[in-house]
Amino acid sequence: MDTHVIVRFHEAALKGKNRPMFIRQLAQNLRRATMGTGVTRVWLGHLFVALRLSEGVDWPLVRERVSQCFGVAKYYRAWQVPPDLDNVRSLLSGQLEHRTFDTFRITANRADKRFPKTSLDINIELGAYVEALTGAAVNLSNPDLEIFVDVIGKSILVYFDEMKAYGGLPLGVSGQTMTLLSGGIDSPVAAWHMMKRGSPTHLIHFHSYPLVDSSSIEKAEELAMHLSRYQYDSTLILAPFAEVQKRIIVSTPKSYRVVLYRRFMVRIAEELARRHGAIALVTGESLAQVSSQTMENIAAIDEAGQMPILRPLIGFNKNEIIDVARDIGTFDVSILPDQDCCSLFVPAHPVIHGDVKVVHRLEAELPVRELVNSAVEEVKIRRFSFPTPS
Ligand code: ATP
Ligand code: MG
User: Fold this and answer.
1) Boundaries of CATH 3.40.50.620 in the chain?
2) Which atom of ligand 1 is nearest to the CA of 340?
3) Which of the four CATH numbers 3.90.550.10, 3.40.50.620, 3.10.180.10, 3.40.640.10 does domain 177-385 have?
4) Ligand 2 center to residue 230 CA distance, Å?
5) Residue 285: nearest ligand to its CA?
6) Which ligand 1 atom is at minimum distance from the Cα of 313?
C-alpha cells in the first residue's frame, strides 16, 4: 500500500492571491528537504501538499526533515487506497484497533466530484462504521480523533495522526537579509527566526584572527552548517575585524568601544548585504540584556547604517532564547569556548547611555571609509548546503 505524508500550512498566512506562489515554494522546499530520504514525488493537493513515500522510506528521517521545513504547520502519515469505501473500512479496522478514543469525527473531502458519494454521505457512512467498530461517539466540534478522508481521483487518502511543526512561511517568500552571527547563543536564534518568516538570511561573522585564535571562526562555520538545515543554502562571510579594533583602541575611550565596534560591523555588513542581494540586517540583540543593548546604544548603533536593522529577539528573555537554541540544535555549539573579537579590549562597564554626538566626535578621528572598504575587500566566503549529497 502506498503511503504519503500530508502537509498542512497555516491557511490564514497563505491567503489571497499570493497563495499559489507560497504553496509552490513550500513544495519546492519540501522536495529539497527530503532529498535522499525515499520521497518519490511531491504534489499539490487542495489545501495540502503531499509527499509520496517509497517502500524503503527512511520514515524517521522524513519526519525530521518535514518538521524542520518552515511553512509546515502540521503533517500526517497517510495511506492511499483504491477509491471505494470498503477499502477505507478495512484500513480503518486495522489502524484503529489498538487506539483508545472516546470521540471522533470523519472529515471527508471530495476533490474528485466523479466519486459517486458526497462528502456528507462519506462522513455519515464511515461515522456509523467507526462507531460500531470502536464504541466511540461522534463529536464534530471537539473530537479526540479526527479522521481525514480525501477522495483525490483514482484513490482515497486516509490519515489522522497529527504531528506539529513550526509553521511560519516557506523559505524564499520574504526578501533576503544578512544576520550578524557572533558564535554566541542569541544570533543563531535570530537568524532562525528570520528563516521562519520566509527570509533566506546570509550570515556574516567578524573575527580578529590572528589577534586571537580561530575558534570563533570554527564556531561560526559549525553554526552556519547547522542552520542550513532550515534554509538549505547558507553563505557565511568571514570578515576581518582586527584592523578596525586596533584603530579604535588607540584613539577612543574604553567605554565607547563596544558601540563603535558595532557601528563598524553595521557599516561593513551593510556594504556586503548590498552585494549579496540582502535588504536588511539582523542581530541577536534583546533589549537591555547587556549594557551594550540599551535603547540608547541600539539607537546609536542604528544611526551608523541606512538599512533596516531587525532584532527578532528584542522582547525575549534569555531563558526563552536558550529554549529555542536547544530546540533548534544550535545551543551546544554556541556554548563552546571561543575567543570572540568583541571581548578584546573592552571594559567591564561600557557606556550605558551612548551619546551619538560623542560617537560622531570619536569617529571623526578615524579613517572610517578606509577601514570599512578594506574589511569588505578582504572577506572570505564559505558556502554550506543541506542536505549534503550522499
Ligand atoms: P550573541 O549571543 O548573539 O553573541 P550577545 O548577547 O553576546 O549575543 P553581544 O555580544 O552584545 O550580545 O552582540 C550583540 C549582537 O551583535 C549579536 O547578537 C550579533 O548579532 C552581533 N555580533 C556581536 N559580535 C559579533 C561578531 N563577532 N560577528 C558578527 N556579529 C556579531
Ligand atoms: Mg556575544
Assistant:
1) 177-385
2) 27
3) 3.40.50.620
4) 22
5) 1
6) 18
